[in-house]
Amino acid sequence: MQDRNFDDLAEKFSQNIYGTTKGLVRQAILWDELEAILPTLGTDPLRVLDAGGGLGQISSGLAQRGHQILLCDLSAEMLRRAQQHADAQDVSHNMQFRQIAVQQVGEHLDTPVDLVLFHAVLEWVAEPEKALQALFDALRPGGVMSLMFFNRHSLVFRNLTLGNFGYLRVNMAKQKKRSLSPDYPRDPDDVYRWLTACGFDIEQRTGVRVFSDYMKAPPADGGGDASILEMERRYCRQEPFLSLGRYIHVTARKPGQKDEL
């Protein structure tokens, strides 16, 4: 088994993920989570690892705030686009780009990082526990991983609502290789168990797109994307909606305190 390289899907990824309502909601909820995380890490510029960072939308936003970013990805094409985006945002001076696997990040860090971004990558990784352990090791004591993963429960529920029973009977086996449907949708309980086994403390769980992917019609109030985002924010941290999110975001902290200078 191999981790997914997005060289052949970079354009499709860019259009389908960021150019839609889905992308808007995803980015907004992620930023909500980061706005809660950042104050807990101190006031100095942070060392940030964006592992499997893709186009670098989130990390370039952090670079705009003065934080120092190392963005790594298996895909040369994704890295090219991330650099292009950073140049357009005039933040390249705060960013480095490396074509390396998540499992190799420790070999490219001079010092541990304060924050790891690991967004929508775990569902493409063949050996998730090894990847999470590598990221745990890359963090300094008291550092945080912002983890977002594709939720298997959401995929089951979506196919139930569509009546795709045949697909469910074959355990949702993926048939198209060049597809944005993840290779390894994750059971949340597995992910929480893996994080705990690594040594992380799970501080917060949030659903990302807890209902909007299931909608068949625009909001009845005519509010469009703004109304959708309002309701996503209202329900994303409540059960049972949280566990139906297309993605689940986890704030996971490495125990301990930052070393005193």
TrEMBL record:
UniProt catalytic activity: 5-carboxymethoxyuridine(34) in tRNA + S-adenosyl-L-methionine = 5-methoxycarbonylmethoxyuridine(34) in tRNA + S-adenosyl-L-homocysteine
Molecular function via GO: S-adenosylmethionine-dependent methyltransferase activity; tRNA (5-carboxymethoxyuridine(34)-5-O)-methyltransferase activity
Enzyme Commission code(s) on record: 2.1.1.-
InterPro entries the record matches: Cmo5U_methylTrfase, Methyltransf_11, SAM-dependent_MTases_sf
A Pfam family per the record: Methyltransf_11
Domain of life: Bacteria
Chain ranges of the Methyltransferase type domain: 49-145
Gene3D superfamilies, alphabetized: Vaccinia Virus protein VP39 (3.40.50.150)
Keywords from the named record: Methyltransferase, S-adenosyl-L-methionine, Transferase, tRNA processing
CDD domains for this protein: AdoMet_MTases
tRNA processing found in the keyword field: yes
Signal sequence region: none
GO BP terms, alphabetized: methylation; tRNA modification
Residues holding S-adenosyl-L-methionine: R26, G52, G53, D73, H119
Family per record: Belongs to the class I-like SAM-binding methyltransferase superfamily. CmoM family.
Job of this protein: Catalyzes the methylation of 5-carboxymethoxyuridine (cmo5U) to form 5-methoxycarbonylmethoxyuridine (mcmo5U) at position 34 in tRNAs.
Name the record gives this protein: tRNA 5-carboxymethoxyuridine methyltransferase
Encoding gene per record: cmoM
